[in-house]
C-alpha cells in the first residue's frame, strides 16, 4: 500500500464560496494566534507551549470571547488542522537546526496573510466529510459542493484539502491509500538526460522537444502585466486585472503538468527501469538560464516518474549529479577534458560520433544499471576497496 493524492475541481455556489472564505479566514486567524502565543512565550523566556494547551487557548477559550466568537461558525476540525500545520512547521524547523532533517535549512513558521494567493483548509475523517450518492462533496457547515469529477475516486479518502488558487479556482485534493498495481514486465530500460534544447533525451536515441509553455505565453502575459500596472492600487479594476494574469499563469502551469503526466506515464509503461540524473535545480535556477529551467519543470517531472514507478512496480534510480555523463564516450569510456554547452555533437578519438544528449542518456543508463542494488541489496558494481596485504603485486620487468 502507498499513499496517493488525487485532485479534482469544485464548483461552489455563491453561498458556499462565502462559507469557504469564512473557513479560510478562521483557519488563518487560529494559525496566527497560535504562532503569536509561542513567539511571545519564547521572547519572555517561558517554556514552549504544548499542542494541547495551545488548542485550548486559541480555540476552546477563544470561542467564548466576543473577539473570537465567530470561530464557532466553522468546523472545529478545520481549526485543529490549522494548529497541526503550525506544529508540523515548528517540528521541521527544530529538526533542521539540530541537524536531524536533511536538505536545506528550514525557516521558522511565518504569519499567514489574508492576501496570500493560495488559501487552503483540510478536513479529516473526524469531520465526517463524504461524497454523496449524487457525486457532490459534503463538507460540514459548508454544504454539498458540486464536483467536476475527471475519474472515479479510489478507496475511501482519509482526508480532503479544499484549495482556492490565485486564479480564483477551487479544488479538492483527496488522500487515499491504494495498492500497488504492477504492470506486465517489459524488457527495455531507459536512461534519461534532461535538458533545455530538448526536454529529454532517451538512451534509445529518441529526443522529446521542449514545449516551452511559458515562452510561448510571454507575449500575452506581457500585455496583461502592462494592463495590471496601469490600474490604481486597491481598485476593483486592479483586482480583475490581477486575476487575468493569474489565470494565464494557471493555464501555463496546467499545460506543463499535463505534458509531464502524459510523458511520465508513457515512459513508465514502456520501460522496466528508469534512470535519471540528480539535477541541482535550485543552483541552475540562480543562473541566466533561470526562466528556461523553471519553464521546463524538471523537478515535477522526475517526481512523477518516481511515484508512478513505485505505483506500477517499475525500478527508478537517481545517479550522482557529479557523474560526467556528457563528457564520457559511451562506446570506449574515454573522458573528454571539457564539453562546453554550445557543443551539441562531438567525435571521440575512438571514431564514435556522439549526439551530446543521447550520449549522456546512454551513460546514465549504464551508470544506473551499475549502481542499482541486486536481489541481496548490494550494488551490482561494488565501490573501490583497499587491496589486501596478501595480494601479489606486479613484478618488475614483467609485461
List keywords for this structure.
399 residues; alpha+beta; 5-stranded antiparallel sheet; 5-stranded mixed sheet; 15 strands; 39% helix; elongated
3D architecture notes:
- The protein is an alpha+beta fold and 399 residues long.
- 39% of the residues lie in helices and 18% in strands.
- The protein has nine helices and 15 strands.
- The strands form four sheets. It has a five-stranded antiparallel sheet with strand order 2-7-8-1-6.
- A hairpin with a 5-residue loop joins strand 7 (159-164) and strand 8 (170-178).
- Helix 1 crosses helix 3 (76-97), helix 2 (51-60) runs antiparallel to helix 3 (76-97) and helix 5 (236-270) packs across helix 8.
- The longest helix has 35 residues, at 236-270.
- The protein is elongated, with a radius of gyration of 27 Å.
- It starts with a strand and ends in a 28-residue tail after the last helix.
- The model is unreliable at 382-399 (pLDDT under 50).
Extract low-pLDDT stretches: 382-399
What letter string, H or E per element, gives the SSE order? EHHHEEEEEEEEEEHHEHHHEEEH
Q: Could you say which overall geometry the principal axes of the C-alpha atoms support?
A: elongated
Query: What value does the Rg take, in angstroms?
Result: 27 Å
